[in-house]
Please model this.
Amino acid sequence: MGRKSCTGVVTGAIHIPTVSFGPKEINTTALAEFGEYIRSVFPTVFKTSFVQHEVIGEYSHLFTVQGSDPSLQPYMLLAHSDVVPAPDEGWEVPPFSGLERDGFIHGRGTLDNKNSVMAILQALELLLLRNYIPRRSFFIALGHDEEISGHNGAQKISALLQARGVQLAFIVDEGNFILDGFIPNLKKPFAIIAVTEKGAINLMLQVNTTPGHSSAPPKETSIGILAAAVSRLEQTPMPNMFGSGLLKMTLQELAHEFPFPTNIILSNLWLFGPLVSRLIERNYITNALVRTTTALTMFNAGVKVNVIPPVAQAIINFRVDPAQTVQEVLELVKNIVADNRVQFHVLSAIDPLPVSPSDHQALGYQLLRQTIRSVFPEVNIVAPGVCIGNTDSRHYTNLTTSIYRFNPLYLNPQSFQSIHGINEKISVRAYETQVKFIFEFIQNADTDQEPVPHLHEL
Ligand SMILES: CCCCCCCC/C=C\CCCCCCCC(=O)N[C@@H](Cc1ccc(O)cc1)C(=O)O
Ligand SMILES: [Zn+2]
Ligand SMILES: [Zn+2]
Model:
């Protein structure tokens, strides 16, 4: 590693404002600077003969780490260097200061997802400095536009690897965490490895009416009609799909961690399912686990204070439950709106992702589980689950059927809110543990079948 300390490399990374503002608005200067930055702080990664580095889509990075045993199928680690915007207001410290204070590194990207970019490269740097040569080849793909689709980063890397005939044993990306404090009465943390992710629809609703003078308004305007339509959608939740998916399995695995009577209730979901599903939907975070969510995210109408608006538009972001499809959700939406003056334009849509295996033969899942048990011995439960957000990994389904979304970090409801919110921060200890996790994971992945103990200790 260069002259910077272990956490110094992260503060430097946070300082570079690699913001994805909108569909075509990225900070190219910052992204270029970020590329230079990783070269400077991880010199060994960039000069090792068996590590190949390529820049894809101008600002994404693909590393190919050649293993010594070509019979082992390669895997891939993902992360992204872009971040969502961060207005200064409300932050304890400016979001791009990268300040380290009271044992925390503060700033946009400390949890999503520069922590992973830096931890992956830092773990590799440390391994290479110890003359480590992997048996199993692996790729590291660092996207630069995950927050606005991944079309120029992940999608291009995926196409390139496919053209090269690469098939992967598994992929590990950001996503779920070791969850702490999300379930009332459950004091112990538990790790959820996401084996699928929800689908998504960005739907624009539009109403056109005849413009005119505001002094003699019609009974209804485009704004009024549209507002009523979106309000109906907000007030009519999509059906509760509890029981048809992975959550039931997750809760059954958690059951014995709860005190009486919750342990009995969760062990008998055949009887208490309706009760549990009602409790889950009361909290807005856990609600996202049982249904397709409806978020009104943009509204635009009106041209002048005294003109009846000719057009009103709203964008609604749905996250599609794994038990439903985009088509099913769109049908429900049309029935709820039930107004033929409202036009529907699907801006983008993706069905929920396939479910990756989590059985005893699932190499990627078992390696994650093994490494969680080693690095976080206090975590008793490791269970498969659903990622409620979308990740770059969705662009790689052509390369593998085994995609796991897991950050080796603790997350509580407050830190969950800081992701895309304010006061995003990571403790120095958590970051160091993430490096340790990846350091061990890479070595554990050298196994040909059964996981084996790693060679180097940090
Ligand atoms: C019993 C279990 C209780 C579990 C409680 C649930 C806790 C949730 C924990 C973690 C979820 C954090 C999800 C983070 C990953 C999301 C990454 C992200 O922000 N992706 C963007 C990608 C995107 C998609 C579409 C776009 O047009 C732009 C960007 C996202 O918005 O999903
Ligand atoms: Zn992210
Ligand atoms: Zn994000």
Q: What stands out?
A: The pocket of zinc ion (ligand 2) is lined by residues 80, 112-113, 146, 174 (CB under 6 Å).
